[in-house]
Write a structure and sequence with these properties.
The structure is a homotetramer of 412-residue chains. By secondary structure, chain A is of the alpha+beta class. Helix content of chain A is 44%, strand content 17%. Chain A has 15 helices and 11 strands. In chain A, the strands form 3 sheets. In chain A, strands 2-1-7-6-5 form a 5-stranded antiparallel sheet. The first copy, chain A, has a 4-stranded mixed sheet with strand order 8-9-10-11, with helices on one face. In chain A, strands 3-4 form a two-stranded antiparallel ribbon. Chain A is elongated and about 85 Å long. Chain A starts with a helix and ends with a strand. The relative contact order of chain A is 0.12. At the A-B interface, α2, α11, α12, α14 and α15 of A face α2, α11, α12, α14 and α15 of B.
Chain lengths: 412, 412, 412, 412
């Protein structure tokens, strides 16, 4: 463990209660030494097994962390959703879907899982699918393709990431299974690059060095609709971020994804380097690190900390039992010289459900009247979804057609 | 098609823009006559193949609908997530998990999919898992058990549901495959009831008659944290509603669940009767109905309407790219006779991310001062999550310890 | 162990060296107490675990035995090839093949293994296939069908076999998995009888009581082309016996059939009652008995004794490295007053290879001559295959056409 | 079709009825033009699709043939059982079994079929198993290893075989799937050679050029216990020949092996070049050739001709319904001056069943006497199996001990 980091962190905790809460979580799991370092890549077996860190980056761009959050390690499979996002940005979601599917394989990470009919790997988060996806990234040769991959992941992390050459050499030397997957994909016609090129880029991508803080920023970029909340750079489209999160939801934890979604409820992706990213969409991204793995190749303490975090902090993505806040800030209703008047102050983002609230209110008010004046103050509205615009427009037109005067402040 | 229903609906659309939007969606898909009625249960092949309806119920309890939204049909597999919820309420999530898993099976709905080691069906939404789950519901005999199932689904729908006896008889007469699954589950030790009892309850549960409106209310009950938003009855715990949605996310659309989550992004469950429920958590529930099925047993027009709805109305559950609204309504900052003073007005639900906003604001304000007075007006706070309470309490204590006077209005 | 049987056997060994050899084989394996009694049928767990017997019946109808060769036990899956033979006799091989396949399932005995496309069980020696096969046997009801099964197996054994009612009741009470297989087969349309009827016959068939001697006679009936060599009754056609042996070759030892064929080389079938039958076609049948089973459900000592027997006695069906005996007993060749004369004495069964020998001899003799007299003495020929008749006829006609006089003694 | 070859053949048929019979068989299937040339190796798609030949070589070393029996084509997968035999000769059957199993895979020829636990390919006749087996052959490098493979297959064929370099280049260029299998096997630790070395040898082995006559001689070498019946060279041990035939029996025709064994009953192996070998152990080997393949990669007319041949000529290996010939040629029984005398003339190969005949005869004769003289004339015995020797010796010792005088002529 990095004692310098810990001392510093303790100081910060004195004044940062989020970091303090994360630190307590680490403490609760620190003594668990079960599991083992990944050994199928010899170089991975040389890291300090006790490393343990966590970081949380909100969509407001603030990061809290605890433990060895600045210890470097290789990203491994945590790179997969981000490389999927890169390919989807370059080629479009539909074109990528012609080469790799969306379905959980129900099998381990290194499973073959090529569709019997189409030859497509089951999804981009198993090795076969990740190799195919990585090979879809544009570029004249392997070097150029990898440069793009590195640039994209660096943009997600908000700093330049480098390759651990010793790990890369080790992956390359022991990569028979991944080469097999590449040959199978090529034989099925879904891998367009030569096998050696494809595996070189893939092995390099897995050997990129990150810290737990990097992972939290990368995760927050997905949480924030593709905009890195620290650098404020737009790294990918909202649509690609959404679909990437969807794939992490159903396929991110291999053949344990269903239970993970039920118990933890945060789209996530683990790597055999010991890192895990988890995302609460539109809220925050989390990185955790602990290199001892369970039989499925997931970080044991990392998974457990995320489950505790989700349970104690009620972070399950579907755990929003309160009614959404009404968009109606204030409704002033009085009878003036020109008859009944209504002033409706609305705010925030207008989507289907909030527009429906406004529409229902207006229709109810109008239902008991034959005429009147309505003023909608929408100056506090932050964004209007297309569906909301259409609902409101239709309602207002209907009101006008039936004898009401309607004015609007602000764009709807 | 039921022309009376349609005429009525058109009238309503005149004044209900949500229903009008739904009606337009139906129109866009009405001409698609591909697919076929389910025929493995002979009675299902007798329904009007052209039936087509949709309904949307918000967590505020309002329902909009279009098309044949009041045409009765049998619920079939749409019953499965609700019976899972009932079993989870009675026995707890962990005890149910001892009998049935959480993982997608990667196989068709009637697949065998019993875990080789434990004999557990893969998840509660395939037939094997649904039969096992249904048999976990308490009761002295099959009749009593079914009474509980019917009562629970009726509470979700907000009205008493009845069995279509002709469909039940047809299911019972052609139920060899389901009886096989029950025998397998019993032989594996995960089915505790006699096979005939278990299948009787299961066949009856599948034969319950619902309308598309019923489905939208049932879905809205899941969206609303287990509280039926129409009747306001608490039908299940928030936790059970959350886990039920998680299972629908990974397993709801059989071996198509990953693509469904990527493209539509709404936890859903289909039935061979032609119905589908879909949920946007904490927002609304949807029911759709069209009895012509694709090769996987999913309603073709129903699936397509949901995909169009999600795309046009931007309803993907992970599609919230805007930053969440700040909980800080107003911050008044002035220097008075007693030094610097800050009045912070916060509102809404305080969870991890909104508490972190408040904490960050307070810490930044205090960082440049050695003393001062802070007044937090939390009277507009609707609910405080435990994690938020802890973060705020720790921060306020720290501020007081370092020389600030802090007062709070309202409970935090 | 049955000491009376042993004493008697020892006496016989004094003068029966085959039995003595079998006895030595038992001794070599007697001390192996590994494995366990079948316990999924409770009644099977009540037998003496030390029972150990062997019997060998030649196609000449003589039986040698050693150990507990007269201890009764239930036949279990050893019944399957014989019930297949009965169905094939009644319906024909092709009609049975429409309901059940010929391929090894690569899976355990109780695997589901229904073909995805046709619903046919993989082969008649797994449970699913055996249930379907048993239900193909004719008869008005379950009782009548079972009477035929019992009569057929009794004819193979050469004595009336009876049901162990306690084992039958135990099978019936714990038969969930087999009922599941029957329901699946029925749902796939390959099982024509009601499930309860089918499983009743199947459970009764498995509960028939046999001794090791019975098994050796049953096996010898298959070895002897369908004729019981003891009673000399024709129980099945040669063709059915041949195909039954072929199925035992590829499917008889479940997912161990390939290694069994490589190492032991005798078509065989085991049962969880502890019995195994093995066959050396046209030579002999063997029965062995020892109720402790390995993880695959095969008798451990039974399998080992058969492997030792095959190795020591060189019994592998493909282990006939000597050239087959020539059919030419004598060839007298002299020059008489009418020119060159040849007398050729042939004997035994004339098949393709032996007819080819005769033809080659005749053609070589004639090749250096332009005329001559040939006398074929075929009075010692036991049987002439059609192909041999055609080859000889064509050759003789050709010889006559080119100037030779040919006479034949005996039918060719 | 090669008309010259046909004319020649017709001439021969005039005097060779076996070839004439084969020719008639070809005629019966000649018009079937269903199926297609293998196209996944482009070079294979360039052959004459109408080529059609058959050859039969007996263990006496005579070959009859018909059709295009001397047309060259590449051996492809027909090489696999012979390379297995080579590896088994070099390393022993048990050591090879540590790297590749004996079980049918129930899957197509290019299936992955590596055992989940051990990584062993299912059997040596699927591609994965053949690559692993080929890599077990000794030699310092790929060239040396291939020289051994070519020498061994040439010894089986009785002439030097050469590589079709164009086919080799085509296999090498399109070998992604086989390279994948090799990488998988290497990653599982069962492939010891570098992938490129292993696939080079494998692709060369598959590209060896043979004729149908060659195949029949190679098959006859297996039939003849490992001795090439034409050259009389001992190519492999009897044991290896036996085990090779056993593997062909259970795995030779891929996932059609069970039906093949039931219907045709001749151990066989097909190749996508259009060739098939089939063996009737201790009788003859057959080669057939027709390059149009079915969906499983088997020659359509080749398979059909073999089935017709087996049915019409009654060649099923288990189809020996006649009792085996008695080894007892003559028994002279008279009472002389020294009491009862028996002269027993025995001949042929004495194995378990024939020795049992002799022993039974002797015991029966002695049973009614208290003394006598027995003379066994074994001068016509061609070979005595160890088990027979032991049975006879024990019997004779027993007779002598109980007062009989026994003399033997010839070795027993």
């Amino acid at each position: 463990m990095n004692s310098t980091a810990n001392e510093r962190t303790v100081d910060e905790h004195d004044v940062d209660p989020v970091a303090a809460a994360l630190s307590l979580l680490l403490d609760a799991h620190r003594d668990d030494t079960s599991g083992a370092l990944a050994d199928y890549i010899p170089e991975l077996a040389t890291v300090d097994p006790d490393g343990f860190g966590i970081a949380l980056t909100s969509v407001h761009g603030r990061t809290a962390h605890a433990g060895d959050a600045r210890t470097p390690f290789t990203i491994q499979s945590v790179s997969k959703p981000f490389v999927y996002a890169l390919a989807a940005c370059e080629l479009g979601i539909d074109e990528v879907a012609r080469h790799v599917g969306f379905e959980p394989s129900g099998e381990p990470f290194n499973a073959i899982s090529l569709d019997a009919a189409t030859g497509r790997p089951a999804n981009p988060l198993i090795n076969a699918g990740a190799i195919v996806t990585s090979a879809l990234v544009g570029g004249g040769d392997a070097e150029e393709r990898f440069d793009r991959v590195r640039a994209f992941l660096s943009a997600c992390a908000g700093r330049d990431l480098d390759v651990d050459e010793a790990v890369y050499a080790s992956e390359d030397a022991t990569g028979d299974r991944n080469r097999a997957l590449a040959h199978l994909a090529r034989s099925a016609g879904v891998l367009r690059q030569p096998v050696d090129d494809a595996t070189e880029v893939y092995f390099r991508q897995c050997s990129l060095v990150v810290t737990t803080e990097d992972l939290s920023v990368m995760a927050a970029t997905l949480a924030n609709g593709g905009v890195n909340p620290v650098t404020e750079a737009t790294v990918m489209s909202e649509r690609v971020a959404t679909v990437t999160l969807a794939i992490m939801t159903t396929c991110g934890m291999y053949d344990h994804s269903g239970a993970w979604m039920a118990r933890v409820g945060l789209p996530a992706k683990s790597g055999v380097g010991g890192g895990i990213v988890a995302v609460n969409p539109s809220q925050f991204g989390i990185g955790v690190y602990s290199p001892r793995l369970d039989e499925y190749g997931n970080s044991i303490r990392g998974s457990d900390v995320l489950q505790s975090l989700s349970e104690r902090f009620e972070l399950h993505v579907f755990d929003h039992p309160d009614r959404p806040r009404s968009p109606i800030v204030r409704a002033d209703d009085h009878t003036g010289e020109h008859g009944d008047e209504l002033t409706l102050v609305v705010r925030g983002e207008l989507d289907l459900i909030s527009a429906e609230e406004v529409v229902a209110f207006l229709r109810e008010w109008a239902a008991t009247r034959t005429a009147g004046t309505i003023h909608v103050d929408a100056s506090g509205v932050s964004r209007v979804r297309e569906v909301a615009r259409r609902l409101l427009t239709a309602t207002i037109e209907r009101l006008r057609a039936t004898g009401f005067a309607v004015t609007i402040d602000g764009t709807v």
